[in-house]
Predict the structure.
Amino acid sequence: MDPVLIFRHSPTEGPGYFTTFLDRHGIPWQLLRIDAGDAVPENLNGVSGVCLMGGPMSVNDDLPWIEPELALIRQAVAADIPVIGHCLGGQLMARALGGTVGANPAKEIGWGDVRITDADAARPWLGDATAPMLAFHWHGETFSLPPDATRILDSAFCANQAYVLNDRHIGMQCHVEMTPELIASWCANGAPEIAASDSPGVQSVGAIHADMAVRTAQLHQLADKIYSRWIQGLRQ
């Protein structure tokens, strides 16, 4: 199988559990380090799927790699090459496919449940789950749904937590790829942002670190469901 192409937009926001999952299933992957100046490819020859990670920038920023990446997302969807987006990645997908990205009503940082909004559309990705599921969050902006996409998850502070398109592509506002190491790094780097926020959706560093092992295990149960569905569509 050709590798999954993973876009990293920030050195602190690597693929985390996503590549652990791919390795466990024997799926090759290639890391494209946008943050280190790697160029966005012009085509997807030799690529089985596209994964987009997060980042502190906005999709609306004037950055040289954003338009080429949006074009590549559109190319992937047109060719039925599966695309999965985490946070900024889900926003890039939405923007590429006709949605918009702007401020969320409340900044959201820390642990919080996501809830199924469309049981039929969510079932291929999440099975018959009906109860809220624990996810991790770190965002101030969010996306509108692109045309023909179906929302499958929301949260108390964000209406659009995940959408699916053509049973093959999924864009998420939440982070399901987190590991204890990533969370510790983000909290260390983002402590000033947390301290400066009065949003009801922002938790303290101490609250985020509490019960880390248990919460991360729950998060990975959600990730396993989503990733297991996504890899079914990878181009052979």
Strands lie at 4-8, 29-33, 49-52, 83-86, 101-116, 133-143, 150-155, 162-165, 169-172. The mean pLDDT is 97. The two ends are 5 Å apart (CA to CA). The first strand starts at residue 4 and ends at 8.
